[in-house]
Amino acid sequence: MSAEELKLLDEMFDNCEYQDSLDMIQKLSDQSSCEVKWRLARTVFFLSKQSTISDEKEALVRQAFEHATVALATDGDNFGANKWYGAILSEKAALDGVTERIKQLENVQKHFQRAVTLNGTSDPGIWHMLGQFHYKLSEVNWITRKLINSVAPNPPTASYAEALDCFSKAESIRPNFYALNLLYLGKCHLALKQPADAKPWLERAAAVEVRCEDDRICRDEATELLKKL
């Protein structure tokens, strides 16, 4: 495994070439290193996003979580391992039911914050993940909030303003790095009753080139939100 190979894997990921990335990883001589393992977890996780078959999607998420767990166990201070462990744990916990998802909120946040500490100045993705964490926690209804407070040992707090700050940091590090970041910037402004600020972000989100499922979600949701402005 060389730095050039890792760079190529990252380029494939950025270009939404998930199957090609998986094929390359499976041909590497060293597949046990932390750097390879978290990239494998990331690739399998995004392949799950492309699947339209629920059983296959769930199986891929759980497979990705196994790889992320190994990566974190190999090096608990690795940025990528913490980042993707947190992201995949959140998705895996959702598959295990509402109670499990709530129980894991603090753990998910812990790994995101650890990743920020390790590499928050140069990686926009971890700020986007933290932004989604704050946004989704902010939009839960009062019934779910009561359940969170009764189930989670130390329930995290969140606000749309905090989410907006995270998405803004991500965009400042690398503009246009991820279509969904544009969408969520618009959604945060809407949640904060700032439609004029939301509109340009939603317009950009509605105009993205669709290369993967996240791009399609971004375009379609932004288009619908613009119709309501």
Automatic annotation (TrEMBL):
Entry's localization field: Cytoplasm, Cytoskeleton
InterPro entries (alphabetical): RMD1-3_a_helical_rpt, TPR-like_helical_dom_sf
Main subcellular location: cytoplasm
Gene3D superfamilies, sorted: Tetratricopeptide repeat domain
Top-level taxon: Eukaryota
GO molecular function annotation: microtubule binding
Pfam families on file: RMD1-3
Assigned keywords, A-Z: Cytoplasm, Cytoskeleton, Repeat, TPR repeat
GO cellular component terms, A-Z: mitochondrion; mitotic spindle pole; spindle microtubule
Subunit structure: Interacts with microtubules.
Protein name: Regulator of microtubule dynamics protein 1
Native species: Anopheles farauti
